[in-house]
UniProtKB/TrEMBL annotation:
Signal peptide: none annotated. CDD domains: FBPase. Keywords: Carbohydrate metabolism, Cytoplasm, Hydrolase, Magnesium, Metal-binding. InterPro entries: FBPase_C_dom, FBPase_class-1, FBPase_N, FBPtase. The lineage of its organism: Bacteria, Pseudomonadati, Pseudomonadota, Gammaproteobacteria, Alteromonadales. It comes from Shewanella colwelliana. The keyword Flavoprotein does not apply. Belongs to the FBPase class 1 family. Its EC number is 3.1.3.11. Pathway: Carbohydrate biosynthesis. Homotetramer. Its cofactor is Mg(2+). This is Fructose-1,6-bisphosphatase class 1. Residues 186-319 form the Fructose-1-6-bisphosphatase class 1 C-terminal domain. It comes from the Bacteria.
Length: 329
C-alpha cells in the first residue's frame, strides 16, 4: 500500500502543496490521538465560551482549533487561515502560497456521546498583495485541495487535489496514512437519503414535497423504497455518501428566520462539494452549484444538497417548480 507521501509524489503534487497536506495530515494524527483518549485526557464537555456564530464551544473545538492553528502557523507555505472557531482571519506569513479554511472539529454534538467527528479543510491559492478577509472570498472552484479526516473506528483521510478522491487509513501500529482506496466513486443512483427530519415543518415547499415523495416509497411517484440515515456530523454523512452513495441535505429552513441555513460555505460546503464532484457526484444549494457561489463572508452559511448525481438532479427538479399556487405548502 502506498503511503501518503508516495501517493502525492505519484500524483505529481508540487512540493509546497505536498508540504501543506503533510502538515494537515500530521496534525490530524495528533487530533485523532486526543479524540481517542476522550474522557481519559479530560477533553470532553463544553467550555464557557461561544464562537463568533453564537455556538457554545466544546473543549475539543478549542483544542483542535489551536492544534491546527499552531501547525499551520509553523508552515511556510501558509499565508493565512480562517476557522469556524476564529472570529477573524489569521495572517500567518508574508509569502506563503496558500490560504487554509477549516472546521477543526465537525459534529461537535457527537463528542460527548463518543460518536463520529472529523476535521474538514479547504485550500485556496493566496492572492498577491495585502491579506484581508477579501483574499479568502474566492469561489469553491478555486480550491487547490480539500479533504476531511474522520475520527471513527479507524481514522481516515479523504483527499482531493482535483485528480479524483483518494482515501487513506491511519495505521495505528505505525501512525502512518496508507492508501486504501485510490479513486472513490459515488454511485449515480441511490435509495438512501440523509436529512434532519425534526426540521420538516420548517422547510420550504420544494424540500417538503421531495422528502414526502421519498417517504411514500413504492406507492409514491418515485416507485421505490428509500432508507434514511443521519449521523449529525456532516463529515460522517458525506463519508457514507462517498462510500456507498446517497443524498445528504441540510436545506433552507425558517426555524430561526435570521439563520436560514446551517452549514458553512468556506469550511464545510465548499470542501465537501469539491470531494463529491471529484467522485462523480453533485453539490447544489437547490438553485446553483455550491462551488460557483461568490462568497461574501468567511462564516457565511448555505443550503446544501449533495451526493449521487441522479438523485441530486431529482431533488433539483422539485426546486424548479413554482409552488406559490399550492394551498397547503
Ligand atoms: O444538529 P443537527 O441539526 O443534526 O445538525 C448537524 C449538522 O451540524 C454540524 O454538526 C455542524 O458542524 P459543527 O459541529 O462543526 O458546528 C454538521 O456537521 C451536521 O451535519
Ligand atoms: Mg462543522
Ligand atoms: Mg466544528
Amino acid at each position: 500500500m502506498q503511503t501518503l507521501a508516495q501517493n502525492l509524489s505519484s500524483q505529481g503534487i508540487e512540493a509546497p502543496l505536498s508540504q501543506l497536506i503533510h502538515t494537515l495530515a500530521d496534525t490530524s494524527k495528533a487530533i485523532s490521538h486526543a479524540v481517542r483518549h476522550g474522557a481519559l485526557a479530560g477533553v470532553l464537555g463544553a467550555t464557557e465560551q461561544e464562537n463568533v456564530q453564537g455556538e457554545t464551544q466544546k473543549k475539543l473545538d478549542v483544542i483542535t482549533n489551536d492544534m491546527l492553528k499552531d501547525a499551520l502557523k509553523a508552515d511556510s507555505t501558509v499565508r493565512g487561515l480562517a476557522s469556524e472557531e476564529e472570529d477573524y482571519i489569521v495572517e500567518v506569513g508574508q509569502s506563503g502560497d496558500f490560504l487554509v479554511c477549516f472546521d477543526p472539529l465537525d459534529g461537535s454534538s457527537n463528542i460527548d456521546i463518543n460518536s463520529l467527528v472529523g476535521t474538514i479543510f479547504s485550500v485556496l491559492p493566496a492572492p498577491s498583495g495585502e491579506l484581508s478577509e477579501k483574499s479568502f472570498l474566492q469561489a469553491g472552484r478555486n480550491q487547490v485541495a480539500a479533504g476531511y479526516v474522520l475520527y471513527g473506528p479507524s481514522t481516515m483521510l479523504a483527499l482531493t487535489t482535483g485528480k479524483g478522491v483518494q482515501l487513506f487509513t491511519l495505521n495505528p501500529d505505525t501512525n502512518e496514512y496508507l492508501l486504501t482506496c485510490e479513486a472513490m466513486s459515488i454511485s449515480k443512483d441511490t435509495s438512501e437519503f440523509a436529512i434532519n427530519m425534526s426540521n420538516q415543518r420548517f422547510w420550504e415547499a420544494p424540500m417538503q414535497t421531495y422528502i414526502s415523495d421519498l417517504l411514500l416509497g413504492k406507492i409514491g411517484p418515485r416507485e421505490k423504497s428509500f432508507n434514511m440515515r443521519w449521523i449529525a456530523a456532516m463529515v460522517g454523512d458525506v463519508h457514507r455518501v462517498l462510500s456507498r452513495g446517497g443524498l445528504f441535505t441540510y436545506p433552507t429552513d425558517n426555524k430561526n428566520p435570521e439563520k436560514p441555513y446551517k452549514l458553512r460555505l468556506m469550511y464545510e460546503a465548499n470542501p465537501m462539494s469539491f470531494l463529491v464532484e471529484q467522485a462523480g457526484g453533485k453539490a447544489s444549494t437547490g438553485y446553483e452549484a455550491i462551488m460557483d457561489i461568490a462568497p461574501t463572508d468567511i462564516h457565511q452559511r448555505v443550503a446544501v444538497i449533495l451526493g449521487s448525481a441522479n438523485e441530486v438532479d431529482a431533488c433539483l427538479e422539485y426546486h424548479s417548480v413554482d409552488y406559490s399556487e399550492e394551498p397547503n405548502l
